[in-house]
Amino acid sequence: MATLTQSPADSGPRTSTRSPGAPPALRHLGPNWYAAVMGTAIVANAGAALPLHSPGLRGAYVAVWALSAVLLAVLLAARTAHWLRHGDQARQHLLDPAVAPFYGCLAMALLAVGGGTLAVGPDVLGERAAVAADAVLWCAGTAIGLAAATAVPYLMVARHRIEAGAASPVWILPLVAPMVSAALGPGLVPHLPAGQWREAMLLACYALFGMSLLATLLVLPLVLARLIHHGPLPLALTPTLFLVLGPLGQSTTAVNNLADAAPGTVGAGYAQAMSGFALLYGVPVTGFALLWLALATALVVRAFRAGMTFSMTWWGFTFPVGTCVTGAAGLARHTGLTAYTWLAVGLFAVLVAAWLVAGVRTALGLARGQLLAPPREKPVAAVSAPRPARP
Hints:
single chain; about 400 residues; mainly alpha; about 0% strand
């Protein structure tokens, strides 16, 4: 993809004077790093949704949630410093079609940590403080998510120059953020005043659900068409195929959580309809998610055999799989089928393994100064080299 060389080409001249022994700078800290926060928080959120209860597991989920909260605070401070000290690079990220979609990760990081605060945070903070913290994070994440879902497509149309056949699963990131709000918003419904407030919150989450779902349905055919007509993604981008699982698992989670919050919020007839919709929607979408999981796994295995090495895109193996865990757990609640419980547990095992691998490799990459190092591509070559012909 030609877009992959755009940012290094623009930032190269400003970083070439750095001494080899200097520590990594914040200049190359992009919004994609929020994926590490999402991938960590979803472990706690997904674990809390499983029908497995023990003090040891609960303590582990609390520890992982606390780690995600610390990571979020550190990354928010670092990204703020990035905008203040390297504003030119930050603006270039917005103008780069390969980087701009990752601004959706900021919203989802806030929402995921907020969801964990409500799910397991009361063990540490108390219920009242946990609800207040989640409300703040949900409102902030939803506002940023709506902004990203609008601004990034606008930039793609008005400012970015995207070649034919360059569709990427990364395009889904800003569009799925409102779906995360729809999935986690129902947790706040019981804490609102009865009546208009609760009903408005519930229906607003349904609106967010529809907004994200329809936008995602416009992008998924482009991604599949790119794969069919242009072949597999570049090795470094292959893990992003798992991002497609995000809207599938998160939408299934959303309809189940909304059905849980419906009784007492809307009329009995509407609540019953919402419960039925959770099954009629969630079961077939979960089936498609499993089909895509098989396809994406096969392509990832192919990429490994071709020499794929670690990059931050490996965090794409975490959050999307976690949404499938919470979706399967929701279906287990509403159907009573043990099969969905085992599916959720099996996917959770995959999530934990992926999180451990991505986390360890990220820590090693930071310690060795590799992940925040200046790009190695030569600016002149990146700009002037002819683009290879597409097959």
